[in-house]
Amino acid sequence: MRYRALVAACLAVCLGFLTACSGGPVATADVPLTYDEIRNTGLANKCPQLSEAARGTIEISGDKAYQIAGLCLEPTNFFVKEEPTNSRREAEFIPGKSLTRYTSSLDQVRGQLRLEGDGSLTFLEKDGMDFQAITVQLPGGEQEPFLFTIKGLTARSQDGLNAITTYTDLKGSYRVPSYRTSNFLDPKGRGLATGYDYAVALPGSGDSEELRRENMKAFDIGQGEIALMISKVDAATGEIAGTFEALQPSDTDMGTAEPVDIKVQGIFYGYVEEGFEAA
Fold first, then answer.
1. Torsion of CA 221, 227, 232, 238, to 10 degrees
2. 3-state class (DSSP) for residue 72
3. Percentage of the chain modeled with pLDDT above 90
4. Are 62 and 115 in contact (CB under 8 A)?
């Protein structure tokens, strides 16, 4: 009886393991996944990754044109800066939970990679799917929408490298456009390029700062900073991968609210290739 129970327990564990391993579809180079196999699974939001053993060097020559293409940034952690109520405490970043499903990654971003005279590298972002609207919820229930992006990124590496290695860090700033566009209407039908100028007849306090900001919509453009820390390099294929950390402002509700700082951490993937044509 004891052996029978032991055999039954072993069979249950083995069957559970096999079921877990074969539960999801797996893509190969010869048999890619179909649209129906990817739909509603979240796989399209994942960035490719390299093996931990990828430890090469990609030499960059000053007499050739290069670009980083297929750049994919997948956020994994979100933090919102919270100002303290006590003046003796410092502001701190509170971890938040993303409410956006399967559409948080940037993908197919490309830009020029240039070798400078001091041996540093400069990456100039040009185009691609380089923005995503994301909403983060704090533990207290407050929600902060923001536009995750790297539009117009100019990032530079350390001096004297002349190559991309597993120690290369690309750091720089970028533009953060408004979360909402000019045709967006608020709940009272007010917008920047369309809608009403005022929600109701001008009240006695119509010149107050609060009402003025609600009525006069603005397309605010902020600035963010990002660090791409390369930790994997495949010299044979030109592929690179690593982690990133970005700091950028949140949405201002078209000029109505003050932005807060959002910190985004995650992983990225891309590849370096010769030749670059500006769009």
1. 50
2. strand
3. 54
4. yes
Task: List the domain boundaries for the chain.
Answer: 54-181+225-279, 184-218
E strand or H helix at 10:
helix 2-21
Give residue-wise pLDDT tens across range 147-194: 999 999 999 999 888 899 999 999 999 999 998 887 888 877 887 778
* Phi-psi map region of 21: left, alpha, beta (phi>0 left; psi -120 to 50 alpha): alpha
Q: Return the half-sphere exposure (C-beta side, CA atoms, 13 A cut-off) of residue 173.
A: 6
Dig out the tokens for 266 from the structure. Answer: 């995650």
**184-218 has the same fold as 54-181+225-279:** no
Give the global pTM: 0.82
Q: 54-181+225-279: what fold?
A: Porin (2.40.160)
| CATH code 3.40.50.150 for 184-218 | no
Element (H, E) at 212: helix 209-215
- Would you state the pLDDT for residue 239? 95
